Amino acid sequence: MLFLFYEDRKKDLRGEIVKVASFLGKTLSEAQIQRLAEHLKFNNQKDNIAVNTDIIYDFGLISEKGQFLRNGKTGDWKNHLSAELNAKIDDWMRTNMQGSDLKFTTDLDYQD
């Protein structure tokens, strides 16, 4: 199983593309990596009809129009989760992920 994190993608998109390709046993040319990196840029994904809710709204399956991808900034969860909910999540992770080697980066020192 391969775990990917948005923050790692923000830090090193090319490296994450290579990691996924390797995991899948694929070799990509530099041109393919560059094309994928362009396709996967946040603004290109945000504008992609396949990843936002506009089409679902148009079919009447949801009542509010909006986009699945908000702003592409790491750490934005702080603007949406209460301190109490964040504490509950931290407690759950401490209890349920004990012994796991998964490391979560929840914020970056910079935004591109």
Characterise the protein shown here.
- The structure is a single chain.
- This protein is mainly alpha-helical.
- The chain has a domain of 69 residues.
- The protein is built from 6 helices and no strands.
- It is globular and about 45 Å long.
**CA-based shape:** globular
Radius of gyration: 17 Å
Number of helices: 6
Q: How much helicity do the residues have?
A: 40-55%
Strand content: under 5%
Largest sheet: none
Secondary-structure element string: HHHHHH
Distance from first to last alpha carbon = 29 Å
Q: Which stretches are poorly predicted, pLDDT < 50 over at least 5 residues?
A: none
Class computed from helices, strands and strand pairing: mainly alpha
Mean pLDDT: 84
Strand tally: 0
Q: What's the topology here?
A:
Layout: H1 6-11, H2 13-23, H3 30-39, H4 42-46, H5 54-58, H6 83-96
Helix pairs in contact: 2-3
